[in-house]
Amino acid sequence: MEGATMKVVVDENHCQGHGLCFMTSPQVFALRDEDGHSYVLPGGDDPTNEQAAREAAASCPERAISVITD
């Protein structure tokens, strides 16, 4: 998928800090020290991480993660 782009988004209004995304895909997500909520790491949006990002999105009990591809 040369030229394809991917964007991974964590909805901060829905994230509850369960940390399952980080446990599932630490190459894509990290957890903020102050509240444990997740964020996408620099480079986490790389299309080579698509499978990992989708697995993390599926693991989120709050459904706070979106993986958008074109």
Describe the SSE topology.
Blueprint: E1 6-10, H1 20-24, E2 29-31, E3 38-40, H2 50-59, E4 65-69
Antiparallel strand pairs: 1-4, 2-3
What structural class do you assign from the helix and strand content?
alpha+beta
Kindly state the number of beta strands: 4
Mean pLDDT: 95
Rg over CA atoms:
11 Å
Overall shape: it is: globular
| Low-pLDDT stretches | none
SS strand fraction: 15-25%
End-to-end Cα distance: 10 Å
> How would you sum up the major sheet?
2 strands, antiparallel
String of helices and strands = EHEEHE
Spatial order of strands in the largest sheet? 1-4
Total of DSSP H or I helical runs spanning 4+ residues: 2
Helix coverage percent: 10-25%
